[in-house]
Design a protein that fits this description.
The complex is a heterodimer of chains A (166) and B (314). Chain A is mainly alpha-helical. Chain A is 72% helix and 0% strand. Helices cover 16% and strands 38% of the residues of chain B. In chain B, the strands form 6 sheets. In chain B, strands 4-5-6-10-9-8-7 form a 7-stranded antiparallel sheet, covered by helices on one side. In chain B, a hairpin with a 4-residue loop joins strand 19 and strand 20. Classes of the chains: A mainly alpha (166), B alpha+beta (314). Chain B: Keywords: Membrane, Transmembrane, Transmembrane helix.
Chain lengths: 166, 314
Amino acid sequence: MSEPDSFDDFVQTRGWALLRFAYVLSGDSHLAEDLVQEVLAKMHRRWGRVAELHNAEAYVRKAILRQFLSWRRRRASTETVLAELPEQAGDEPQTRIVARDQMWQLLAGLPRAQRAVLVLRFYCDLPDAEIAALLDCGESTVRSQASRALAKMRTVIVEKGLVGDG
Amino acid sequence: MMDDLEERLARSMHGAALDAPPDANLLSQVHRRSGRYRRRRLAVQLSGLAAALVVGLPTVAVLVHRSGSVVPAAPRPAATPVQLVPGFPNPVFPYALPPADGMRAPVATLEPGKRIAFFEATDLRRQADTTVTVTSTEPVFTTAATEAPVQVRGRSGRLRTVDAEPAKQYVLYWPEGPDRWLQLATDDTYTREKVVALADSLTSAAIPVLPPFELDHSPAGLTPDTITASTMSFDDGDFSVVLRRAYPLPSTTGQVAGDDARLTREADGVRLDIAVSNWDAVLQITVRSPLAITDSDLLRFAAGVHILDRSNPR
């Protein structure tokens, strides 16, 4: 994909993709808007240099990720762990929605680093090597974080008898 | 190969992503925030002509109980009494780069142990933000960097290169004289030779460090150690005036010109918090032991603190 020439072009063409990424990462609309606005506002002035990079969007996503991890670190005491989950439902379409909501809430209860790894792996479809580079850690750390997160989710699913989506 | 949970997770994330907030106003919001950051960056650069906003701290301010009586706290025996003298002499930054197209006039600040001048670039294609720092000791760096020896201003210096994105950072440092080290920090908009040439072009100057507050009185004999957009402090912070973002006062002992205030004395000093309503901030004045100040002098000092519009609460 060619990079938009100007900052305004970039925000207009890639803004919603960045918001979606930030939303999946943070699980909160307001926080997602704040993350994206904060990162873009800080880059605005130096956009000429950012745009010269091989992949400006990857650089922006990395900044959003760092900002998220940094903010969540400061807010760590407010993290909820595996919060109350929606009740199971019977009919098919609603079951799918409930299942999605359950996944979403299980994700919201994970520690920030584990959540980030899962988002990068399953939403962004990145290989572990790229995730490790983004998070400044080793691939083994990525694998262990993902493994712990998935194990925790499986445990809760079994304990609470949560639904599948078909 | 994804298992069932992983597939459900991926589907859930992609489904949830569609609920992300819309981007309809993103560009304007980013521009607004970017503009705010720029104003903050430049706030201290506003000229000394910036109007002093008297923020409810009039010349005569009296801390009064809600019942109307004067705050009762009595001063402890003074170990080193603070004497107030009229006015405040601004410190100066002693060097300047030659004026250049695409560069703004410098903004000088004072931080513990260092004097700093920031030269902001307005033409980012040809110029780069440049910071010159004066310290009394050799600077210590913690960031990983490569270093190379250079000759600068007839002295042996070192040029550090920090490999960062989107631009490599250069820090050139050298001993300018006895007990004086200079650093010039910029980025790879300039070549290494240009960085050294910039340092060579520094001339003697007296750039005033512009404080965030106008002080009718200042503590006699105390050396200013910090002057930033939020803080003026003296003698390693033993006497400090800080504008902080608003926080609720746990209780009030009275008011200063209509603003709630709280005066507290502890074994290690005295603190006066004034909730400055029209700034959505709290002005915090602290005098730490061994310095001592009477309530009346503290109030007289507070009465003479005028928050300038180049200030920025922290």
